[in-house]
Amino acid sequence: MHSFGYRANALLTFSFTILALMCAIASLTDNFNSPSPTANVQILNVNRFQKKSTGDDEVAITIDISADLQSLFTWNTKQVFVFLAAEYSTPKNSLNQVSLWDGIIPAKEDAKFSIKTKNKYRFIDQGSNLRGRDFNMTLHWHVMPKTGKMFADKLVLPGFRLPESYR
Amino acid sequence: MDWQGQKIAEQLMQIMLVVFAIGAFLTGYIMGSFQLMLFIYAGGVVLTTLIIIPNWPFFNRNHQKWLEPSEAEKYPKPQVTGLISKKKTHKK
């Protein structure tokens, strides 16, 4: 500690090490958060249901998504990425997951929402298996922290069914 | 800075940074603001820098008394020779 440079180096190194420890502990506090999110999805309308020239089925729907994800936010949350996926099984694939809509929630106030939207991404099957198909709408979310571990979870909403015939 | 001052500087730095870190973390956690924690900690780092890096007078209280040059000449340093005898002599 005999010169300015020596003391400055010691101070900077020590302060940055402590900062890293603070961030690690802040990330650990996220484990104490027990979230209780709710969500509800309804299909308002099936706009189009056709078989494409490639032989794959395609569905265009209008959906009503309402959710309360406010309990996911902690002091260490930067944003929550949420997406809605249609999940079903076919003879060809045991699990199909098709993402229909996603969004970024930047703050706790925006986490309670209700929107009506057409599907943002196309709902196309690998094959022609969608007529009369039962499927689940699963809401997935990724809680992105300011520092540390990212948590991901989902909520399964079963009981949806596509029409028996093309329209 | 003298030796005592250096020791004070190091201890002061460690204590101040740890205290500010704990204070910043608790305040940020209770208020629910990550940014507040960072601001308080940054303020603490700046304050610590201002206190321990410049050569303040209170670091120089215990001035090291070196020997006067005339006093040192009376007791010259012993010359170290390269020859060391390895024979053991037993004298009864």
Automatic annotation (TrEMBL), chain A:
<keyword id="KW-0732">Signal</keyword>
<comment type="function">
    <text>Essential component of the signal peptidase complex (SPC) which catalyzes the cleavage of N-terminal signal sequences from nascent proteins as they are translocated into the lumen of the endoplasmic reticulum. Essential for the SPC catalytic activity, possibly by stabilizing and positioning the active center of the complex close to the lumenal surface.</text>
</comment>
<dbReference type="InterPro" id="IPR007653">
    <property type="entry name" value="SPC3"/>
</dbReference>
<dbReference type="Pfam" id="PF04573">
    <property type="entry name" value="SPC22"/>
</dbReference>
<keyword id="KW-0256">Endoplasmic reticulum</keyword>
<dbReference type="GO" id="GO:0005787">
    <property type="term" value="C:signal peptidase complex"/>
</dbReference>
<keyword id="KW-0812">Transmembrane</keyword>
<protein>
    <recommendedName>
        <fullName>Signal peptidase complex subunit 3</fullName>
    </recommendedName>
</protein>
<keyword id="KW-0472">Membrane</keyword>
<dbReference type="GO" id="GO:0006465">
    <property type="term" value="P:signal peptide processing"/>
</dbReference>
<keyword id="KW-0735">Signal-anchor</keyword>
<dbReference type="GO" id="GO:0045047">
    <property type="term" value="P:protein targeting to ER"/>
</dbReference>
<keyword id="KW-1133">Transmembrane helix</keyword>
<feature type="signal peptide">
    <location>
        <begin position="1"/>
        <end position="26"/>
    </location>
</feature>
<comment type="similarity">
    <text>Belongs to the SPCS3 family.</text>
</comment>
TrEMBL record, chain B:
<dbReference type="GO" id="GO:0005787">
    <property type="term" value="C:signal peptidase complex"/>
</dbReference>
<dbReference type="InterPro" id="IPR009542">
    <property type="entry name" value="Spc1/SPCS1"/>
</dbReference>
<keyword id="KW-0812">Transmembrane</keyword>
<keyword id="KW-1133">Transmembrane helix</keyword>
<feature type="transmembrane region" description="Helical">
    <location>
        <begin position="12"/>
        <end position="32"/>
    </location>
</feature>
<dbReference type="GO" id="GO:0006465">
    <property type="term" value="P:signal peptide processing"/>
</dbReference>
<comment type="function">
    <text>Component of the signal peptidase complex (SPC) which catalyzes the cleavage of N-terminal signal sequences from nascent proteins as they are translocated into the lumen of the endoplasmic reticulum. Dispensable for SPC enzymatic activity.</text>
</comment>
<dbReference type="Pfam" id="PF06645">
    <property type="entry name" value="SPC12"/>
</dbReference>
<protein>
    <recommendedName>
        <fullName>Signal peptidase complex subunit 1</fullName>
    </recommendedName>
</protein>
<keyword id="KW-0472">Membrane</keyword>
<comment type="similarity">
    <text>Belongs to the SPCS1 family.</text>
</comment>
<keyword id="KW-0256">Endoplasmic reticulum</keyword>
<dbReference type="GO" id="GO:0045047">
    <property type="term" value="P:protein targeting to ER"/>
</dbReference>
<feature type="transmembrane region" description="Helical">
    <location>
        <begin position="38"/>
        <end position="59"/>
    </location>
</feature>
